[in-house]
Amino acid sequence: MKRVKLVFILFSLFLLNNYCIGQELPPIIKYNSSVYNAGNQNWMISQDSKHFVYFANNEGLLEFNGSTWNLYKSPNETIIRSVKVIGNRIYTGCYMEFGFWTRKSNGHLNYTSLSNKIKSKVLDDEQFWNIISYDQWVVFQSLNRIYIYDTKANTFKIVMPKNGVLKSFKTSNSIYYQTTDYSLFEIENGTSKLISNNSVLKGNKIVNIFSIDEGLLIHTQFNGFYKLINGSLLKFNAEADSEIAASSIYSSQILSDGSFAVGTISNGVFIVTKDGKVKYHITQSKGLCNNTVLSLMEDAEKNLWIGLDNGINCINLQSPIKSFTDETGILGTVYTSIVHNQKLYIGTNQGLFCKNYLNEEQFRFIKGTKGQVWSLFVHDNTLFCGHDSGTFVIENENSKSIFSQSGTWKFESVPSNKNRIIQGNYYGLSVLEKVNNQWVFKNKIEGFNYSSKYFEITNHNEVYVSHEYKGVFRFQVDNSFKKCFKLFTYTNPPKGKNAGLAKFNNSIYYAYKDGIYKLNEKTKLFTKDNSLSSVFDNDEYNSGKLILDNSNKLWLFSKNYINYFTLNKLNTSLKKNVISIPSTLTNSMLGYENISQLSNYQYLIGTTDGYYVININDLSTKSHNVSITDLSINKLNDKQTSFALSEEGIFDYDENNVTFSYTVPEYNKYIYAEYQYLLEGFQDEWSEWSAKPMVNFKNLPPGDYVFKVRSRVSNAANDNLATYSFTIKKPWYATNFAILIYGLIIISSLIYVNKLYKNYYNTQREKLIEENNLLLEIKELENEQQLMKIKNEQLAQEFDAKNKELAVSTMSLIKKDELLSLIKEDLKKSSEESNNRSIKSVISTITKNISQEDTWNVFKEAFDTADKDFLKKIKQAHPSLTPNDLRLCAYLRLNLSSKEIAPLLNISVRSIEIKRYRLRKKMDLPHEKGLVEYILSI
User: Fold this and answer.
1) Closest to 548 in 3D by CA, of 535, 532, 564
2) 132-141, 285-294, 858-867: which range is least confident on average?
3) How many CB atoms lie within 10 A of CB 376?
4) Strands 28-31 and 311-315
5) If we measure between CA atoms, which residue out of 588, 600, 603 comes closest to residue 545?
6) Hey, CA dihedral for 171, 174, 175, 180, is it positive or negative?
7) Which of 67, 93, 810, 845 could form a disulfide with 82 if both were Cys (CB 3.0 to 4.6 A apart)?
């Protein structure tokens, strides 16, 4: 027994390692609670006319407009169990409360309670799990009763079954509900009517009811579908029953194409065709946030919204894109793919896998190909596999190694010989040849040993090789394809990261980050092709890999787009086609992007965890409308406040930080909206296209503005334009009235200043006149002083002259007395000899005339005239002075020397010196003070 178990386990592991279970599914978008920032559980879903989606969430009413999530708390902060959009109202039901939400002028929702009108009739602990719209009535269903609200009469009617209510349903023209005893009722004229209490329904909860031509189609929780025809309950057998039987069904929804979406408690969601076959089975391992499906809703774009026990999903059921995700990791990253002999081959980093192309079946591993597969190539109905281990020929699901000396990148057929293939290897190029109907390795081309990931060969055996780190090489190959010569390395264009090279429309192109270059066959030089290079504008470069498909389309991958070029039927120019799918969504290996043509319009694109298939014929997008969803303003460092969008805004000068939010409600995973805006009055040109659904303008100056926003989806611009006009008022100090006041103040100020200036200038003039007069007076005084100075100088000169005159007179008198004395002496001698009386008479006369007293008196009189009061002043200063002392002072005042004074006093010079000494003593002069200096200073 243990042996059997071991064998079973080993067999299971073998299957797991050799088969990859998978299914191509429509795109699935995940919204975790961390994304929408609300509760985990979502109990019901609805959509309004603007395509905004609403969810009954544990935390409140959750709104999603395609760009922004908004949460509105329930009025009593309880779980909202139900939501239904009816007209311009959004009805919700929660714990002991139901009502509706309407949109305010600022775009936010405001709640109005209906249950408050019948508050006394609402049961304690009652919750409202479903809301149904029927003509003018709105039906609120709890687990106890059904409340019917007449929107026109604003009245209520309550249906009170004997047993509790499990669930209520609406068909095209009726409302039904199932009670806890599993009986089915219809509401007619506001009362209950029993439709069926068939024993088949006992213990079998009804999930949903649908109208069909024969009657009703009832979907049950455990036993699948039943038809209720004329009161009879008949089983509707479907292939899906056996697959879904083990799952407990919680919700279901009929879709617009007649198929059904079936949500289970623990097994995800099933999409069942109207024939009863399972089309998709999608679980958490295949992209759902959770396996417990609480609610389902198909929106206007035929997307299926799924409310889960933990999160929200949106499935693009009608998308032209289907994806296969390898959740097991067995398949790995897809590097290449091809359809050959009705089989789809997938080359990955794990090896080569295949499955029948037209059937939904598992991928099978091809033995012997374990490891990295780089390329797949079909030539002469033979499939070649470029592998890290070399080259394989694939026949059906078998592999045969034909070259193992080096890894093989790619293959190209020789133009002149269909029995030869050149392969690019890790160490150059080599040749494969068909011999006896078998492909074998022939030889390596000598003379070139660089890795040849991308290469092309011309009709003249000229080979071009692109090396990511060396650049582009060109060389000639001999006719035997054994040697190369004329090796040339291009410096322009230079080498580049993820650069690529390919032949398209008989021309060789080289692509790297600075653009795409085309080879001129005549000059052998590369020149930039501006048309192709446009795909790398606006920093779009991701990879330069160029891929040519079977229908002569050239494919390139950029950051935000998948681009392909086709030949124009009317001229030689190339037609550019853009698929608006960013690289973040394609999830391709950078530099190893790959796309292969499966059919005329279907293409397979490899990713890091599988692949997706795209139908380019169904990529046309519908027109979508852009709308402004929110306008918020705020003052500096203040909170934002939403304003009404329905009327022109007038804001204060300091409310000049303005934020606009806008959206296109597009919910396709691989198609996203881009926006372009213009603020007239502030900007002159439209902004660059951006996926950001909001813009903020800071510190706008006062003025009138018109905000405009437009959108494009999948690179196709929409016609509609959303606009909003607003005005930022001037501050009070910049208004027209304030400017008028400023003008008046300025004029008054000018007049006042002018007056002040006049007064000032008058004052200054008077002051200047006064100053000038004062200056003139001062000048006159200076002139008078000058005259006085001159007069004083003249007086001093006269005084000096008088002194000199006095001195001369004094000396003359002295000389006269000396002469008379000499004559007297001579006469005395003569008289003694002759005793003559006449002589004696003369002597007597002479004696009278030489009296010193007379001489002194004459001198004194003259001295007092020249120097008034000197003798009085010195006598007052020194009362002890004698007349002789005063006479000496007078002579010293005249600045006479001792020698000159001696004859005047009739004494010797020595006696004069003694007199001077005594005079100093009497005057009590200090030793350092000169006698003459002192006398002159008096």
Assistant:
1) 564
2) 858-867
3) 25
4) antiparallel
5) 588
6) negative
7) 93
With helix as H, strand as E and coil as C, how does 227-263 read? EEECCEEEEECCCHHHHHCCCCEEEEEECCCCCEEEE
- pLDDT the model gives residue 672: 78
In degrees and rounded to multiples of 5, residue 617 shows phi and psi of: -75, -20
Q: Is the separation of the CB atoms in 675 and 720 below 8 Å?
A: no
Q: How far is the C-alpha of 584 from the C-alpha of 580, rounded, in Å?
A: 12
What secondary structure does DSSP assign to 832-887, as a single string?
HHH--HHHHHHHHHHHHHT-HHHHHHHHHHHHHHHSTTHHHHHHHH-TT--HHHHH
Percent of the chain with pLDDT over 70: 92
- The tens digit of pLDDT for each residue in 519-565 reads 999 999 999 999 999 999 888 898 999 999 999 999 999 988 899 99
| pLDDT at residue 779, as a whole number | 84
3-state DSSP helix/strand/coil % of the chain, to nearest 5 = 25, 40, 35
Q: Which two tokens stand for residue 79?
A: 């779980």
User: At a CB cut-off of 8 Å and minimum separation 6, what does 107 contact?
Assistant: 628, 629, 630, 631, 642, 645
Instruction: Provide the percentage of residues in the chain whose pLDDT is more than 90.
Output: 55
Residue 417 φ then ψ, to 5°? -150, 105
Strand partners, 129: none
Do 146 and 187 touch, CB atoms closer than 8 A?
A: yes
Residue 686 DSSP class: P
Alpha carbon 831 to its chain's center: 146
- Report the relative pairing of strands 562-567 and 351-356 from DSSP bridges: unpaired
pLDDT of residue 867: 67
H or E segment and range at residue 308: strand 304-308
Bridging pattern class, strands 515-519 and 278-282 = unpaired
Per-residue pLDDT, 756: 85
Q: What are phi and psi of 70, to 5 degrees?
A: -130, 135
User: Cβ–Cβ contacts within 10 Å for residue 721, how many?
Assistant: 12
pLDDT in tens, 130-184: 999 999 999 999 999 999 999 999 999 999 999 999 999 999 889 999 999 999 9
- Give mean pLDDT, residues 868-886: 83
| Cα–Cα–Cα angle for 589, 590, 591, rounded to 5 degrees | 110
Q: Is the peptide bond before 493 cis (omega within 30 degrees of 0)?
A: yes
Beta carbons of 314 and 20 less than 8 angstroms apart: no
Give the span between the Cα atoms of 728 and 699, in whole angstroms: 10
d(CA 514, CA 511): 8
- Work out the angle between the directed axes of helices 883-893 and 909-923 (0-180°, nearest 10): 100
Query: How far, in Å, CA of 468 to CA of 409, rounded?
Result: 13
Which tokens is 75 given? 């009025």
HEC secondary structure over 443-461? EECECCCCCCCEEEECCCC
Tell me the β-bridge partners of 866.
Answer: none
Crossing angle for the helix pair 852-866 and 736-834, to the nearest 10 degrees: 170
Closest-CA residue to 455 (of 481, 423, 431, 489)? 423
What region does 303 belong to: left with phi over 0, alpha with psi -120 to 50, or beta?
beta
Q: What is the C-alpha separation between 584 and 591, in angstroms, rounded? A: 14
- Give the separation between CA 743 and CA 710, rounded to whole angstroms: 44
- Which residues on adjacent β-strands are paired with residue 674? 712
